[in-house]
Amino acid sequence: MLFFNKVTIIGVGLIGGSLARVMKAQKLAGEIHGAGRSRETLEQAIRLGVIDHMGQSSAHAVEHADLVVLAAPVGTFEPIVREIAPHMKKGAILTDVGSVKGMLVRTLEGLLPSGVHFVPGHPIAGREKHGVDAATDTLFQGAKCILTPTDRTDSGALDAVKALWAAAGMNVVLMDPDRHDHIFAAVSHLPHAAAYAMVSTVAEFSSEADNYITFSGAGFRDFTRIAASSPEMWRDVCLLNGKNIVEMIEQYQFSLNRIKKAIKHKDGHRLEALFRAASDLRKGLG
Amino acid sequence: MLFFNKVTIIGVGLIGGSLARVMKAQKLAGEIHGAGRSRETLEQAIRLGVIDHMGQSSAHAVEHADLVVLAAPVGTFEPIVREIAPHMKKGAILTDVGSVKGMLVRTLEGLLPSGVHFVPGHPIAGREKHGVDAATDTLFQGAKCILTPTDRTDSGALDAVKALWAAAGMNVVLMDPDRHDHIFAAVSHLPHAAAYAMVSTVAEFSSEADNYITFSGAGFRDFTRIAASSPEMWRDVCLLNGKNIVEMIEQYQFSLNRIKKAIKHKDGHRLEALFRAASDLRKGLG
Questions:
Q1: Mean pLDDT score across all residues of chain B
Q2: Nearest-by-Cβ selection for A197 from B215, B229, B255
Q3: For chain A, where are the alpha helices, taking DSSP H only?
Q4: Is this prediction's ipTM beyond 0.95?
Q5: Could you tell me the domains of chain B?
Q6: Which of A172, B184, B240, B284 is the most buried (most CB within 10 A)?
């Protein structure tokens, strides 16, 4: 049976808080401790009943924990793991919810003492809302969770983390950490960079007297919604997965060039063919 | 008082149908005729009570009409106006809902006999749904409608079209046709081209065995929603507003390059500053 006496969640926001709610709803944890940068957030999480206790520090909070979940911004994982590694008990499982794996996974593995089992993970859960007040035990229902075990991953720990996300209602997929980063550079990191670039582009043409953005419709708002995401988080993702993201930006610039050339040559057939191929693919997504 | 004995709508889809519903709800028209390529759509529009009659042809449908509304795809405006111009009565108003103005407005003006008053328009109405069955008299409520009169526009006709869109609940804005095309190249046409390019980019990395798109989340779906739009329509917009769209694609490529360079140089400060500026702007949009 899946049960952890003590669980510690580092970063009790939407994702960390929702996972805590799943564990409470399904009685998968004896007690849930929270840690993180903001004391206020942790106090709120206790008031909301998302966690039971808060640690003075992450190092303190992970002591005696059977499961530690890294749900803080991905750019903070390395310093957090450096801090908590010496305080984790033998046999404990460490997992994360970060949107970058690859090299980061290898770095974190190298920081852990033997006997602490790291299972890298990435639940693909909606992030329209933020914060622990939006946390719900239904957030993960029906979505994919990618786990990226390596040669060093303990199979018992992997099974436990698989069972945890399955209990949250997720379809668990196992994948190589580097392949994960290539795929997510394409389907997530590139779109975020592109949305930021789009807002900047429109801003270039705007002045206080003549604000182009005020004329935007639902399409522009949809297109650029993700540009409202956390600049710090996306800075870190770009730094941690830079090589893949640069490759995707270059491929994207190639696709834009193809459209630009067809427009310059007034090539209606070519434009329609390019747009139709993309449109047919997109329609399949819903 | 705003009243048209006979109104003819060419292209009875979401926009044309919704305008017809507004005129019916507010008793602004004696009878509403429809015309367009699809007999089936027109029959459906009659069954739904959106229009009263359908014409054998556009030329036939515009006879004796006091107001003719071009609500077909923008790429068909020129041939339609060539067809209907000789059949329009003296004193009639012609208006349109096309998303390109500029040169197209001057072309259409040149095709009309004197005494037929053209008032170019562009209601910025949501287009998530398509077709006359989605038409509703509340579609335009609270959104902007841009009218782009020229030196040749009759002021009485302009006032009538202004009053019509105001009755539909729109905020009417007057603007130079060329300025319209520059603004909408930025806030609408570029995002569509960029969304098509994004879907193509992700598709380049996909095969049947390894479909990257299946790993996309809500962000990618939001970002590329507009790539499901009509390829023919966007082909025509790109051909009719090519010069501005090429300028915007180039500016966009410049913004992407800026991000790419910061990633290559691992310049976290620069990345965060670029993302923060865009994020702050985007948050203002809701």
A1: 93
A2: B255
A3: 14-25, 39-47, 58-61, 77-84, 102-111, 155-167, 177-184, 190-204, 218-224, 231-240, 242-264, 268-283
A4: no
A5: 4-175 (3.40.50.720), 179-283 (1.10.3660.10)
A6: B184
